[in-house]
Amino acid sequence: MRISFLLLVMATAIALVGCVRPASTQGDLTVTSLRTNDLDNPLAVPTSRLLFSWKTTATGRAVTQTGWQIRMARDAGALVSAPAWDSGWVTSSEQVMVPYAGPSLDDAASYAWQVRIRDNKGRISAWSQPASFETDLGSIRWQASWIGAAAPKADSAIFRRGFDLPARPVRARLYVTALGVYRMFLNGERTDADYLAPGWTDYNKRIQYQTYDVTSLVHEGRNVLAAMLGPGWYAGNIASFGPHKYGVSPLLSARLRLDFADGKSSWVDTDGTWLTAPGPFRQADIIMGETYDAAGLPAHWNLADAPSDGWQAVRVANREGRDDLLHAQSDEPVRVTAERAVKLLARQPTPGALIYDLGQNMVGVVRLQVNARAGQDIRLRYGEVLNPDGSLYTANLRTARATDHYLPAVDGYQTYTPTFTYHGFRYVEITGLTAATDVTSLTGLVVGSDLRRTGTFEVGHAMLTQLQSNITWGARGNFVSIPTDTPARDERLGWAGDINVFAPTASFNQDTLNFLSKWLRDLRDAQTPDDNYPGVAPNPPNIESGSGWSDAGITVPYTLWMAYGDKRVINDGYESMKRFMARIEAMAGPEGRRVHGPWGDWLHLDDPTPPDLLGTAYLAYDAQLMTRMASAIGRNDDAAYYAALVNRLRGLFKQHYLHDDGTLGSNSQTGYAMAIGMGLVEPSAAGDALARAVAARHDHLSTGFLGTPWLLPALSASSHDDLAYRLLLNRDYPSWGYEVANGATTMWERWNSLKPDGTFGDVSMNSFNHYAYGAVGDWMYRNIAGIAPAAPGYRSITIAPRIGGGLASGGGKLDSPYGDIVTSWHVDAGILELDVTVPVNTTANVVIPSSDASKVTEGGKALDAIDGAGAVTHDGHGTHVTIGSGRYVFRAPYTAPAP
Ligand code: BGC
Fold first, then answer.
1. Nearest CA-CA partner of 50 in 126, 92, 105
2. Is the peptide bond before 152 cis (omega within 30 degrees of 0)?
């Protein structure tokens, strides 16, 4: 009795203290992860487009944001004392891509910002840790010259320029670009970690520059800015179409801005005073490889004490209006994102050649440490797979030589890493050594656009775990400045059909917002005079357009909007998308039959779909997406127009393709899958017909690039989850599991890239790293992890795992724009436990797949009694409950459906 009285007194005291404690010091509402333009502390954002995002963690459930306050200053130290902008409290629930609304900002200037929020429980967070950003050059004119090698047709060169400084600058920024690819050095040190900068754009329309903080590299006295320049995409080979697609000889242009303690600034620009030399690259080609003759690099070439022999004046090119095409790179740079150890294979079939295995089909280069002699020709070749005799298989690289040569300048131990090329490979073959033991170390450097990893997918199933790994490696290796089809052979183009089908999966695994927004810009730059989107972007080979490829111009913006909630992707492309829609609607004519382009359901397995069915289905689907996107940006007349178009096309589609016996088109799996997924037919009847078409192939798939992403979703949408799981878990040909069973570590281009008899698929087109069939990852996230956006940006979330295939556990974690969405479920002794975390300021509709709704509990309580939950309903998929933020552990009796 006494004890309970004491407890009561203590509890009252604690409650009182809680009441009087100033809200702003509460530690249970915390703002983190500040990003500007969806980047961490970027160095060049346009002042016209400055967007702030943050995330919040909080104790308690169903926490929402009711207001925010941002303050900004020239540096973090001035945020309190001298803010350049204080928004004051803004009543708003927005926290993703919130536009800057303060006074105009200086160009090329640094700023810090921080934010605090208040929530629906009356709490006020502490101010967040500051984040920073810098503005781009804005209206500061690009005065630097475009300089090139002395020989007008040289495709590589090195450059240097010495300069004296009276004092050490307090801030130094390098703005640099090239027509070609560059590597910059300041006083002998690299200025950055980027690879193949400035990246690939249509250089006749848009040239990206990069910004680097080089304050720590510059000093009082003599300094040297130096560069290596290679042909890259500008002057080097593009796919199999040869070199010089944009120009013959690369050019460099750079501006170094130095700010001193006395408030003065000065610039060191590329101009006619720079010196050049041919440099070490005898070849530096993305497709063919690099030949690096170390003797070609003059002594101390990038240091202050370099001898002057061998250096000449640079060639200063005519500006040709290029300055107007410059803009700061808006997406993540290409970088080395990981290193991998190699293993020397026990079996070495070719005398004089050593083959190493990286254990993973990857994209990038190697770092070779070797004991070598001057002038020796050390050759490195790369392959994705081995021939049956253990030798390197390179036939599928077609004309890509993909070979590097290193010619040492001196005897002894030395290191070589290629600079201006990259390869797709799992195996490396080295020849030209004196002894096998000369290789002291070899490391794989994984190169790709350095996108933030956002999704992880967990399942208690080894094959699916490997499949997920293969899917993510496909994106890592093929996202290199643009989304490419394949990294190894003479192709590596921004094929639109491939990213059309893969973008949803990719956007679970990585933050693709800036990367794919940049590529959409490339696609719009490549839009044809008759308003079509071509099959690839950038498009120097002038490749045509076609159904399923060109449609990426509509589907990719929609994917990004749903994944990130950023309406800029709609606004930026809207007029271009409208023009494309008008074009393909005209192609379909009043009859509503769109026959467009040569590719069809690419690489299907002898199960063709009529081209007009594919084209019309995509037109109707595009119109649905346009209806939603138009209304999201307030273009209501357009939304009504597209809605009417969808209705008309739905009618025509059924009229043209749905036969009296319930079959569709040519009875292809792809035809059914797309028609169901695109909402053109009733799912139940068409789903049964699809199930019959799958059964006719002994429960195996036959879909190509366009049909595959829709196949499992269509089965799930028509009550055939069991069949969806069977296809997913098959291990014999053709299936995803077949690839895994045959040792795949990335997705293959063809279902039969390696045939069941052990021979290779059609050598004229057979890549072992092609992400299109990895589009199944979207179904895996939605159905095994059970995570899907219910509103753009995951502002509301669907959490609905569809348990099947005998799986006993699964889940996933998605770093969404609002914070981590986490699911984890397992079934044990007839009980399903589903553990869910929902971010602050969002809601989730959770579907618990229980056979007995009345027995579903959360934290031991019936669902209608739990804190933070809304109405509870039930349907054939399970018990639905809407919850706010927080962590919830649901338990329910669960009986697996009969197989
Ligand atoms: C590419 C594909 C691409 C296709 C067009 C191929 O060569 O590798 O991925 O989409 O051409 O059909």
1. 105
2. no
Q: Which residues pair with 478 in a beta bridge?
A: none
Q: What spacing in Å lies between the alpha carbon of 88 and ligand 1's midpoint? A: 53
CA 593 → CA 278, 497, 778, distances in Å? 57, 20, 29
Is the minimum distance from the CB of 638 to ligand 1 under 6 angstroms?
no
Least confident of 23-37, 68-82, 113-127, 662-676: 23-37
Q: Which string of DSSP letters, residue by residue, matches 671-729? A: HHHHHHHTT-S-HHHHHHHHHHHHHTTTS-----TTTHHHHHHHHHHTT-HHHHHHHHH
Q: What does pTM read for this prediction?
A: 0.95
Atom of ligand 1 nearest to the CA of 770: 9
Residue 136's DSSP bridge partners are none
Using CA atoms, how far residue 21 sits from 16, 64, 124, 129, in Å, is 9, 21, 12, 22
Q: Does residue 808 line the site of ligand 1, with CB under 6 A?
A: no
Structure tokens belonging to residue 699: 């429960």
Q: Is the CB of 486 under 6 A from ligand 1?
A: yes
How far apart CA 402 and CA 422 sit, in angstroms, is: 8
Counting ligand 1 atoms within 8 A of each CB, the residue from 485, 536, 708, 762 with the most, and so the one to mutate, is 485
d(CA 138, CA 159): 27
Amino acid at 420: F
Residue type, 865: A
Q: Is the CB of 497 under 6 A from ligand 1?
A: yes
Strand 207-213 vs strand 326-328: parallel, antiparallel, or unpaired? parallel
Q: Tell me if 495 CB under 6 Å of ligand 1.
A: yes
Cα 69 to Cα 40: distance, rounded to the nearest angstrom: 20
**pLDDT tens-digit series, residues 678-728:** 999 999 999 999 999 999 999 999 999 999 999 999 999 999 999 999 999
Q: Residue 513: helix, strand or coil by DSSP? A: helix
- From the list 778, 787, 728, the residue with the least C-alpha distance to 505 is 778
Compute the distance from residue 553 Cα to the ligand 1 centre, in Å.
17
* Residue of 490, 498, 708 to mutate, ligand 1, most atoms within 8 A of C-beta: 498
Whose alpha carbon is nearest atom 4 of ligand 1?
A: 495
Nearest CA to ligand 1 atom 2: 485
Task: Count other C-beta atoms under 10 Å from residue 153's C-beta.
Answer: 10
Smallest CA separation from ligand 1 atom 5, residue:
599
513-525 vs 568-588: helix crossing angle, rounded to 10: 40
Ligand 1 in reach of 76 Cβ (< 6 A): no
Distance from C-alpha of 45 to C-alpha of 37, rounded to nearest angstrom: 8
Q: Residues 538-594: pLDDT tens digits? A: 999 999 999 999 999 999 999 999 999 999 999 999 999 999 999 999 999 999 999
pLDDT-derived band at 848 (thresholds 50, 70, 90) equals very high
Contacts of 266 (CB under 8 A, 6+ apart): 257, 258, 260
Take atom 9 of ligand 1 and give the residue whose Cα is closest. Answer: 485
Q: Which residues of 104-124 are buried (b: 16+ CB within 10 A; e: fewer)?
A: ebeebebbbbbbbbbbbbebb
**Is 94 in the active site?**
no
For ligand 1, whether the C-beta of 485 sits within 6 Å is: yes
For ligand 1, atom 3, which residue shows the shortest CA distance? 495
Residue 646: count other Cβ atoms within 10 Å of its Cβ: 22
Atom number, ligand 1, closest to the C-alpha of residue 765: 7
Instruction: State the catalytic residue, choosing from 491, 585, 739, 858.
Output: 491
- Catalytic residue check, 220: no
The residue type at 722: D
DSSP per-residue string spanning 206-264:
-EEEEEEE-GGG--SEEEEEEEEEE-HHHHS--TTS-S-SS-SS-EEEEEEEEE-TTS-
Q: Return the residue whose CA atom lies nearest to atom 12 of ligand 1.
A: 599
Task: Give the E-state strand segments of 2-121 in sequence order.
Answer: 29-36, 51-58, 65-73, 85-86, 90-91, 98-99, 110-119
